[in-house]
Task: structure prediction
Amino acid sequence: MIIGLCIPLSAQPPATPRPSPWSAGVFVATDSQPYAGASRKVRVLPYASYRGERLVWNGPLLQYKIQQSKKSSFAVHGLLQFAAYDENDAPILEGMGDRQNTLLAGIDWTYRPYPPLMLIASFDTDILGVYNGQQVTLGLQHAIGRPWNTFSGSVGAGLLIQDQNWTRYFVGVPTNKATPERPAYAPSESFHPYLSAQILLRFNQDWALFSLARVEFLDETWRDSPLIGDDYRLMIYSAVSYTF
Result:
């Protein structure tokens, strides 16, 4: 799961009126694309969100909390995963065929040993059969401020664990797609440490800006692929929204 597409919900203080759960605006997603010769990819999409006690819809993410207590929560989610690449993104990808958008489904678990600190674990699997890959995320987040304040956010770190199907879909080269410049490559699972930061800036009661940045440090399995030219991947997700 893309961590931080929504800041974990916290109880509102008694003196603060409960805000409307609905908002809409513009969502911008950027990806540095670590493929050799590829430039940053930018997607601009309309954005809508709903934040209830248990149900959260936040752009490409839909999450439902099955269990929630003061210290822990357990949820299920669905998430739109954008295509890994198009073959015209870089010369090295020509002839590989365009990748497809797909839908991930999974589970999320969080635990707060004390208020600012949160342990997180999530599991994702491709449910449309595009590549049948799976990913596990293990991480730690430290909250800054409160979601109802003018400024709030968090910083985090963790590890992404991607199975063989996931890794081969993103960086593998099948034998029938190999060329002298792009030899066949059949990787196994991969492990990527990451750092993340997110902010929520409320301009007033109606308008807000949310932004999440995550940098993944690609492991040797990805770096050894003939498709890869960078040793990191930077993704930034931002949304400007109006509450109504």
Remarks:
- The mean pLDDT is 91.
- The radius of gyration is 19 Å.
